[in-house]
Design brief:
52% helix, rSAM_sf, 95 residues, mainly alpha
């Protein structure tokens, strides 16, 4: 018997975000997220993103230069966030 899991859009957004954060150098492109899901990364996960940036675990970085800036388009783990990655990921999957 073959089982098939139907992934809801919210779960798919979570999985996309977590997979991108695991690729620590690349992070998650806000533009690619919006193109794929039709919703803003900041709007979907604003509470979690703001909290984790405040804790120094996430940062917005420029796609080309990797410089950190609030107006940048790639969300990624900070060096500290990489050390505490599992704690970061839990924030996005807890209800």
């Amino acid at each position: 018997m073959v089982s098939k899991e139907i992934v809801g859009s919210e779960q798919e957004m979570q999985e996309h975000l977590l997979m991108g954060l695991r690729l620590t150098n690349e992070g998650v492109s806000a533009e690619a997220f919006h193109t794929r899901f039709g919703r803003s990364l900041e709007n979907v996960f604003s509470k979690e993103i703001d909290e984790l940036i405040g804790l120094g675990l996430l940062e917005w970085a420029d796609k080309k230069t990797s410089e950190v800036s609030k107006t940048s388009e790639v969300l990624r783990l900070t060096p500290r966030g990489r050390l505490l990655g599992n704690q970061v990921f839990l924030r996005f999957v807890e209800d």
